[in-house]
Amino acid sequence: MEYNFREIEKKWQKRWVEEKTYQVTEDDSKQKFYVLNMFPYPSGAGLHVGHPLGYIASDIYARYKRLQGFNVLNPMGYDAYGLPAEQYAIQTGQHPAITTVNNIDRYREQLDKIGFSFDWNREIRTCDPEYYHWTQWAFQKMFNSYYCNDEQEARPIEELEKAFAIYGNEGLNAACSEDISFTAEEWNAKSEKEKQEILMNYRIAYLGETMVNWCAELGTVLANDEVVDGVSERGGFPVIQKKMRQWCLRVSAYAQRLLDGLDTIEWTDSLKETQRNWIGRSEGAEVQFKVKDSDLEFTIFTTRADTMFGVTFMVLAPESELVAQLTTPEQKAEVDAYLDRTKKRTERERIADRSVTGVFSGSYAINPFTGEAVPVWISDYVLAGYGTGAIMAVPAHDSRDYAFAKHFGLEIRPLVEGCDVSEESFDAKEGIVCNSPRLDVTPYCDLSLNGLTIKEAIETTKKYVKEHNLGRVKVNYRLRDAIFSRQRYWGEPFPVYYKDGMPYIIDEASLPLELPEVAKFLPTETGEPPLGHATKWAWDTVNKCVVENEKIDHVTVFPLELNTMPGFAGSSAYYLRYMDPHNHQALVDPKIDQYWKNVDLYVGGTEHATGHLIYSRFWNKFLYDMGVSVMEEPFQKLVNQGMIQGRSNFVYRIKDTNTFVSLNLKDQYEVTPIHVDVNIVSNDVLDLEAFKAWRPEYKTAEFILEDGKYVCGWAVEKMSKSMFNVVNPDMIVEKYGADTLRMYEMFLGPVEQSKPWDTNGIDGVHRFIRKFWSLFYSRTDEYLVTDEPATKEELKSLHKLIKKVTGDIEQFSYNTSISAFMICVNELFNLKCSKKEILEQLVITLAPFAPHVCEELWDVLGHETSVCDAQWPAYNEEYLKEDTINYTISFNGKARFNMEFAADEASDAIQAAVLADERSQKWIDGKTPKKIIVVPKKIVNIVI
Predict the structure, then answer these.
(1) What are the tens digits of pLDDT across the range 148-179?
(2) pTM of the predicted protein model
(3) 154: which DSSP letter?
(4) Strand partners, 539
(5) Angle separating helix axes 738-747 and 52-67, nearest 10 degrees
(6) Residue 625 CA: distances (Å) to CA of 147, 151, 622, 631
(7) Which of 105, 35, 46, 69 is nearest to 727 (CA)?
(8) Which 3-state string (H, E, C) describes 92-122?
(9) Are 835 and 784 in contact (CB under 8 A)?
């Protein structure tokens, strides 16, 4: 029977659906294993060959664990909200829901062709009200919670309300936006609105004034990773920094738990380090500085209070509220011009850019340790969200302060004995302190650090600051609260209405609050988000339903929130919903959550290290506090797949002609390289007729060939439509089959590494599958499999393979597994092996990689159940033992020939046999050997 991959793959994809092969339910008799891919955003372009890389890698592992007897959950769905569909709606008027469904249908068609073992019965879409019901529900829980620093967990906001009524907020240790103080009497005397404003200071989901990346053309706030070089990634529109009242999530409250949790999960060290740096824990002190000739004072955070004697200027972040307070009338015009320039730069760009810019505020601050008046500057190298948005500058011992001081001619005062700061700052981590205070000035305070080591000086200063009420010792984190509002249409609606300007949550029983229809997807003429176009977007608190805007009376009917949630909202707890996707009463049933617990293997890209992987960990820890998630960490093991890059092809047009010259002849002409569609190139040889038909301007093209062929140039570049190097997996599946595509993607290199797509090597993998098939069927379609017992050589080849593949799969070294399959099949082919005893085990071992052909051959072998339900074979070390050893025979260190000996042959017997061999006599040449060295199981060296 011929290997007809098209028929075989259609047959088994159909049967898997009919027999529900991949549907899974909880089974207490089996150990669970949960495999998950970072789910895709369904773009209009569909999949290219780079997209399935991670899915294939995780699918192999999922199939392998199932064969080991695990109950495997391997779901798939779609992160369906996003700007591309909304932008397409703005351009065409087509509702984003229609675009999204069309895109999902295309994705599903492509995914099905590749033969994944996804349980599609559990499919979720973030734009489905059944799904975002639970995103809204989680938001409600966050709104109605605060974070208790003493208990290190989220607690009901009602606890605060009760405590405030009795004690005020005295002794309260809760995460908050700003430190405030009030008594019980003051609380009880406040109006409802005033109380709500105070509670907003503590809520985990809260409204706050924050700096955002504002894109006027898109009419929305953008996340940092949606902005590149000051413009939006989508559309290339200008982006500025702007302060807006936004919904935020108090992610910062969980900073320490996010750090601690990294020690409990199996992620790469580099990814953990990325998150540690992003969270940015630092221990230091907050110190008060008074403004000269003013009642104003402000706080700075420093990790090195011991360097206070070296402060020669202060720097404010451009966004700091202090800028307006400290800017003098004489400096106002210069400061305003500087602020206008910095608005166009995101925080990430400011961190990365080492160029020096700044402006003097006109004010001075008093150093509490020296009494000196130091100038207060404004510069964008200071960020508003870290610490207090104001820093003390110690240029002798900080590189950015040093560059700033050099640029603006400010004093640089060294604080470590013997350090040279003439060319660069000195990293003051070790040494003896000096100039603290300077010996030539009258001390301003009773603290002296001179003569102490750096370590001693740090502890002494912290103690002094605390004892003299100059500030407080504090742990600080770089991690910011997450901005949770977007001014766009295509996103989850907030379950929020506004009464007297304050937000209130709609009843939990009324969820989901569904996205309304709008006439336009653009912001309104008055600058409101697109939901401002909705005519039925008000909340009736009596009837608990959405009603027409004209019914708003601010008594029982109130306006609903016009912002929508950001892209990460729907992807933050989706792993829990996959466990129980059809539950209408809860996000997940506690018993089901107790069974699946968390994700055992999560596969996705490193680009999500500081976005999704922070937010989802925070979200899950909150749900853990609520008793919803049984595990504090959502993703136990994480594997980051690399990227498949494009392999572009080029043709070379002779200048001012329509003639194209082949690669190795191009240097004889003046040519222009032009990208050509890789799908009309095979092994770097251009299909001339296809090229002529590709574009109208090439219809009359002429060619200068080499050896009758047109050879294209090539380069490794990002896979993109503009470079015509996008390879559609459908074309590979049609030409070679899904099993070939799956194996070839894994054969390209280690899963974690990025590598170029090169169709030139795919024939070899396809030939391997055909050779594997030929162990079962002859060229004349004769069925070859017999029940004869396997030989020692056949068993050795098989068990060597099983051992290798078992170890490789656990390490995700799939490329070396495929090499091992090729070696084994070649060995069995040469041995003319068609023994059922061998081939059954071989089919099971190959099944995770090439499921279609293995299902077919498993069926041919007489099995009535799927190969998925077979048992993963165990290798037997007895079969791997060598009976004989091939020794290299050397004379004076030079290898001359080889001899076979029994594996347990004694050294004396080996020496005697070697000396007796006639080939040895030629090299001994009648001389007496001085020494014979036998290296067991390797070499015999005769020294003459």
Answers:
(1) 999 999 999 999 999 999 999 999 999 999 98
(2) 0.86
(3) E
(4) 546, 558
(5) 100
(6) 10, 11, 5, 10
(7) 46
(8) HCCCHHHHHHHHHHHHHHHHHHHCCCCCHHH
(9) no
